[in-house]
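Write out the 3D structure for:
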Amino acid sequence: MKTCNSTQISGGTNKCLIHLDRLSITFKHWSGSTFHDVRNPDYISREQIFNTITLLHDSSPGIGAFYHTFIVLYKGFVVGKLHTATKLKKHELQFDFSKQVFYSFSPGFWYEVYAAIKSELGLKYNNIHYLEVSIDVNKNLVEAFGHYYANCINNFLRLGDRYRMRKGTIVNVMCNG
């Protein structure tokens, strides 16, 4: 995502690296899609090839809201899993990137994979389902976090009276702060 050589925090210079660590996105399946979202496992091919994308059907049960899972290969590299056939009969698919995609080849490799899946399978982007961003820095973030955690334990840092909380409610940075 972003790389910087220094950050000015309270007068000191710190090296940092900010990048994606995990990403799960949803796509919309539509009538013009080249990929066919099939519910019945008897009609699913073991291997489906779409130019640079190859889908290998995983016969284990799909996750939560989806019946089927495919292992996705891009130019022969395993890049993630595609979950299909939603149990709610929505026309949605979920793609979970493998973690190593964000740490390989080049910083834009994950986007190259995303663009290939979208164009070759004929899917439309829908939403981000899950995202983790990693921040690597040579500053002691544990100490700074401890300070915020110790000082945000209650409702003392709110601004104005508009967002008043009920008596006994606790807000902290580990929960919902």
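The chain has two domains: 21-127, 141-177.
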